[in-house]
Amino acid sequence: MEKDTAEQLLTRARGCIRIFNDMIEFAQCHCDKGEERVVRHAVGYTLSELLDRLMVPIFTDDPDLVPEGLDYGPLDGPKFSELAAKMKQEPPPSEPRRGHEPQGCERGTPSMDKDTAKQLMARAFDCMRLVNEMTEVALSNGDEDELRVVRRAAGHTIAEMYERLIDPVLREYPDLLPEGIDYTPLKGPTFTELAAQLRPASPPSETGSRKKP
């Protein structure tokens, strides 16, 4: 991969990471503990896909592209050029994205504040825009095999964000879907239901746990 193309991809990937950090800070300030954990899970899984499938292979190919001052050594794994070479072979069939089913959670009225949900969605779609730009960068480069690596990385990254954050919010607030996008979320729990599953249990009250003599 040409160094200029790699730098353009990494610039957008770092933009996503800045948005992820902002999402977590926002959740810390405006969400309860369960809701914050949903956001952290979504960010963690999405970031993992972005790192494993795009950033780490690029760093392995060209260690000079690791940002200055960052003490980081890529994990063992294929280089980006090696992944691109594998794409010359027939790729395995992709698995359909599946929604999580709620466990022990009764469906009820939405409890997440709509303005909070709206601001989280704005950040999520800003990130998705940057991920889509990565495929445009790879497309302009003209190498079909490299384009397939980037498309696969982008697809897995977007799938995680939709499954773990965007879909749950849209099940609760369908009108938060940006205008012009024709999309129906998969069946699964709402954001509030996921938050209820992750919310720490309240400790038993001292008077309630005290036994009579």
Characteristic key phrases:
single chain; 62% helix; globular; 213 residues; Ferritin; mainly alpha; disordered C terminus
Number of domains: 1
What is the correct CATH architecture?
A: Up-down Bundle
Global mean pLDDT: 80
- Give the amount of beta strand, in percent: under 5%
The low-pLDDT segments are 95-110, 208-213
**Number of helices, counting only DSSP H or I runs of 4 residues or more:** 7
Report the principal-axis shape.
globular
Run of helices and strands: HHHHHHH
Rounded to the nearest angstrom, the radius of gyration is 20 Å
CATH class: Mainly Alpha
Strand segment count? 0
CATH topology: Ferritin
Helix-strand category: mainly alpha
Q: Indicate the multimeric state.
A: single chain
* Largest sheet composition: none
Helical content stands at 55-70%
First-to-last CA distance: 76 Å
Description:
With 213 residues, the protein is mainly α. The protein has a single domain, classed as Up-down Bundle (Ferritin). Helices cover 62% and strands 0% of the residues. Helix 1 runs antiparallel to helix 2, helix 2 runs antiparallel to helix 5 and helix 4 runs antiparallel to helix 5. The chain is globular. The C terminus is likely disordered.
